[in-house]
Amino acid sequence: MTDIPLARPERHVPVWAQGLIGQMLALLIALAGGAVIIWLVGESPLHVYEVLLRGALGSAENVAGSLLQATPIIVCGVAACVALRGGLFNIGVEGQLYVGGFAAAWVGFTLNLPAGLHVVVGLGAGMLAGALWIILPAIMRARFNANEVVSTILMNYVAVLLTSYLTIAVFKRPGGWSETAPIAQTAYLPQLMDGSRVNLGLIIGLALALGLYLFLRYTGAGYAVSTMGSNPKFAAYGGVRVKRNIVAVLMTSGAIGGLAGGIETLGVHRRFMEGFAPGFGFDGVIAALLANGNPLGVVVAALFFGALRKGSLLMEVETGASREIITVIQALIILCVSAQILIRRRGGISGEKRWKF
Amino acid sequence: MAADIAADFAIEMIGITKRFGPLTANRDVSFAVRKGEIHALVGENGAGKTTLMNVLFGMHLPDSGQIKVNGAQVEITSPQVAIGLGLGMVHQHFKLVPSLTVAENIFLGMEIVRGGLIDSASQVAAVRALSASSGLAVDPTRVVRDLSVGSEQRVEILKVLARGARIVILDEPTAVLTPQEGRDLFRTLRGFTDQGMTVILISHHLDEVLEVSDTVTVLRDGAVIGTEPAKGLTEARLAQMMVGRPVDFGRKRRDGTAGAPVLTLTRVHARDDRGLPALMDVSLTVHAGEIVAIAGVDGNGQTELAEVVAGLRAPSYGSMNLNGRDIAGAPADIVRGAGLAHVPADRLVRGVDVQASIMSNILMGRQDSPAFSKGGMIRWGRVRAEAAALIKRFDIRTQGPDAPVKSLSGGNMQKVVLAREFSQGKQFLLIDQPTRGVDIGATEGIHDEIMRRRAEGVAILLISVQLDECMKLADRLLVMFQGCLVAELDPKTVTVNEIGLHMMGASHNRKASA
Amino acid sequence: MEILTQVFTISLIAAILRTTAPILLVALGGAFTTKAGIFNIGLEGQMLMGAFFGVLGSMWTGSALGGLVFGVTASVLMAVIFSVFVVTLRANEVVVGLALNIMAGGLTISLTKAIFGVRGSIVNPAIVGMPRIHVPLIHDIRPLGQILSGYTPLVYTAFALVFLVWVILFRTRLGLYIRVTGEKPEAAQSLGIRTARMQHIASLICGVLAGAAGVHLSLGYIVMFAENMSSGRGFMAVAVLIFSGGDPVKVLLGCLLFGFADAASLRLQTMGVSSYLVLMVPFVVSVSALFLLSWRQRPKIIRETLQHLTAPVVAKGQGS
């Protein structure tokens, strides 16, 4: 029966709304699952959620803190999103964040440049480092089909260890503990308001997300990338240079991951410290998955995750629960989303199963 | 009386109805097969043949109706139940495991186990015995990956026999065979019925249906049009029953002479994905206003030829010229720029992005052309207008340019591909299996569209495993065998038999031994 | 001097066997899912859960065996969640695996704090480690005893499993069905083999072995639990599985390579090389091996020359 129409008749709910409803449902189920876990570790779920909410949004200060936490997640989310839309997984955003952060800090404490330019060169160095960090996995994926999921994950470990080594063995601040010298004031990423470290990075992240959205929707190159993501053979047949695009997409993704690191070191810590940004890269990947590859959705997901992170700090003070409980909730969200949303992305009637070796 | 007649039937399906959502695939179908006969089930794609057989084989449960096997009413809830009743099905797409041996494949699911381990020696011996008694020659120890298509089919049939089948269903068995191999198969099937077995043959090749079967049942739009003895039926009558109106089977009338060369291949060689030679010394020229057809059994290098011409595979040797530009090893965008339009063989894999909308599919290949983009930005308004116009012109049955391609039927998906590729005014058309999985009515429309392009002076290279299609459309007919072009024939004078000999490499072997 | 170098190499061999064991166990588990056609990136999290609950079980029951049972049970639970999502709900393997890894990390840290009130690691005299087995007779023969005797039971099990897994995969009905499920599921289904069930079974077996590997980490030679103590070994196992295709013998060779990298890097550390650089070695080795082997399996680009054209046939038939 080759001629059966393959889709059911259109329901009257638009596709994006169906997706949104699904996402919300997944969120609710995940929060319920999280409540069970919180109860298991001996805390009251209601109390913990109340503290989380208060910690995230309870005061202007807390909201600013949430935005501060969300900033690198937005940027990392856009990084993961670029790859995802090109049909690729960059699980190595975390590693690119580290090397990018270190490179930017290095520019910050080594070079002498005028204000403004110093920031640009610093962020540029971060992007370059991030792009270079993924260049081998990218080329090996494009030319020899080497699985980029595993290679980028393994590169994460190398990145964390390498930056730690450089920080402690080569560039350690005399008298300091596992951190480099502070960056020059000229390299400070401008802050948006007094009394909070929320900085220009937030604006950069929002602009990147919007830019990616417009790029994918309205440009020929964006069309080529997203077609490659949904059916690479069709794209190749239509004249898209798939191998070149794979390298370009992954390196762009890596550069944005590196930029996230630069924003953190130049905007928040103003030096490179061991373990300066734990998990932001993974949060970004999760945000991109939760948004199903929609750059604007990434912003929403990242803001949510940022708020969770900020809230978890208060939670750890006021309750007995560890702040890592929020990563469990995040994982539950992704599990629920994966069960109902991502199945539509996979396979399809061409039957191609991407993750098989 | 009922019992008396019923005893003569191997299969009776009475009043079968099967719906998929809003679509009725089988409507009150009654179908009976006498013991010891070859019964052909014919109909267009989408007429409901496969659904009916899937119901019989327990892969679908009917919404209503009953089934009797050897006169006894049965409830076939799974293929295992069907196998238990002595039914066996040979699918059109073989379901063999490439890395296993012939014996392992045949015994898969019913292994001989001794002491917890699989007893492969006993399995091999059993296959040898079965092979001898059925006349289907295979080497049980060979790995299936290395077998020819004909041998794979023998393994599939042995699989069915090993499970004790007395009623064998074959779905489009000759689609992958040469006419001669097909005749061998039919002799084997006749041998089965001589032993009292029953054969059901699903086919849309009208000539072979008339040649081999005792009885023919025609399905159309999910309902039975008629069951008649094969004797006394003609192709034209069968076709009319299938389509519901007279069908033109003749060669397309054509006039005009071929123009200047558009595509020239000189001594082109290419390797397949495993690095083995797939194309050898292929030289051909396609002129403006001419259709050159490549005939051959599937898997003799046609895929690689199409990929090489389309810029999707680099040749390992040789030169290629399209509209005066050297395209050997050039990527697809360059070849398209030189004047290629391409209808690929497998539309679901290459021809469309099923997830995307019709208009997004129409855009492919032109996202950077001035007609649809300006300063790198896509002019979606123009794309939508173009898509709407093409939907109208090519009669694509859909809700509109925004509908996802996955909501279309197979025939309409193919029309999306044709609409995109035929409407670009390119001078060279590469058409690979244009009517695979498309019903007869739509096939005619597609053939007319191809002839129109020819009349406009487009150079056309047609690759098809359907001999009738090649003969109907081609000005010149080339036959491909094991990666070589072994013959150039005139479709006006050549016979099917002769083409068949070339497809089997008869001329090739004679030359090699000479 | 000669004796010194000899002892040096012999103890290195012993160290290699010790460090190979956990990654070999988890990779052999992954061989089942790989053969069943599942890309199981969740090995890391399963191992981590095994390590944590191994410690917990060991304390609660007061025996290493109790620890093993607890650890394996926890890991199997993760494997069940994994296969329910991937096989039954048809969710994307990478996404589910990633989520479960993240969950394992968060859950073990949260539980450490909830149960022990500490962050970081659990060190407690109540944790009972694995016993060492002194193989009779061989133990006292000088070089041989050092190489073959004195390991925990899981080390012996890991190496014995190479053969056992090979027999299961290639000589039994279960193994055959798992392989067919991964290679050609439609063929399996048409013959009544329940491919979903095979994938669940493969995932379960994988969970058992990954759990055992985790328990080996926390109760084997170091008797403690530390956050994220699986430290990428699960991912290295995935790398091994990619280039071995799940073939047990190739899995063994790949794992020995990592065991060697691990053991050699520990040696480097005693020689004064920075521990950060030393810890990088196994990751660099595995990612290099992944690249090298995919480069070796690359599609060959072949150019023919005029002299070596394959079987030149000039056959322009006349249509006679």
Overall description:
Chain A is an all-alpha fold and 357 residues long. Chain A has 14 helices and no strands. The longest helix of chain A has 28 residues. Chain A starts with 14 loop residues before the first helix and ends in a 17-residue tail after the last helix. In chain B, the strands form six sheets. In chain B, strands 6-9-10-3-11-12 form a six-stranded mixed sheet, sandwiched between helices. In chain B, strand 1 and strand 2 form a beta hairpin. The N and C termini of chain B lie far apart (66 Å). Chain C is mostly helical and 320 residues long. Chain C has one domain: ABC transporter involved in vitamin B12 uptake, BtuC (Orthogonal Bundle). In chain C, strands 1-2 form a two-stranded antiparallel sheet. Chain C is globular. Chains A and B meet through helix 9 and helix 10 of A and helix 11, helix 12 and strand 20 of B.
Summed up, what is this model?
The complex is a heterotrimer of chains A (357), B (514) and C (320). With 514 residues, chain B is α/β, with parallel strands linked by helices.
- Total count of helical runs of at least 4 residues of chain B: 19
Question: In which order are the strands of the major sheet of chain B placed?
Answer: 6-9-10-3-11-12
Supply the number of helical segments of chain A. Answer: 14
Major sheet description of chain A: none
DSSP strand count of chain A: 0
Number of strands of chain B: 24
Whole-number mean pLDDT of chain B: 88
N-end to C-end Cα span of chain A: 30 Å
Uncertain segments of chain A of ≥5 residues (pLDDT<50)?
A: 1-11, 342-357
Spell the H/E element sequence of chain A.
HHHHHHHHHHHHHH
Helical/strand content category of chain A: mainly alpha
**Helical content band of chain A:** 55-70%
Q: How large is the share of residues in beta strands of chain A?
A: under 5%
Shape estimate of chain B: globular
Helix content of chain B: 25-40%
Q: What's the quaternary structure here?
A: heterotrimer
Parts with pLDDT < 50 across at least 5 consecutive residues of chain B:
1-6, 510-514
Radius of gyration of chain B: 25 Å
β content of chain B, as a range? 25-35%
Biggest interface, residues from each chain: A-C, 54 and 52 residues
